[in-house]
Specification:
The protein is α+β, with helices and mostly antiparallel strands. Helices cover 30% and strands 45% of the residues. The longest helix has 16 residues, at 46-61.
Length: 136
Amino acid sequence: MQPFYDFFTAYGSFSVGDDPKAIASFYAESFIAAAPGGAASYHNDDQFIDWLNGVLQFNKQVGLQKMTPHNVDTTSMGEHFTLAKVTWEALFSKTGNKPIIFDISYILQHTGNGPKIIGYVSHDDQEAVMKEYGLM
């Protein structure tokens, strides 16, 4: 679905920027994040903004140049929610033109201000993948 593809295209572009508040605007007031190593719940507050700032600095440190959705598969979860499996392509200075491909599934809530992320699950261990490509 094009609106969700556009949503994640914008999200990816902010991931290589320097504005943590822009990234935070994609998230609901509270959300859940999970990866193979565990799960946690978060609030979209000043502490989250500080954490996002650290993520953006890390992205620059490891040479993230571009992050774009290669594919967005969506499934309706009723009138108010959508499950979106996003296959991301990330380009790093060390990988040149060879993107790193990874999947994250998101639960989006439909709001008057567009979709908001209320949860996501990383399919792979990000640190292990980055080590595999020599980024860490």
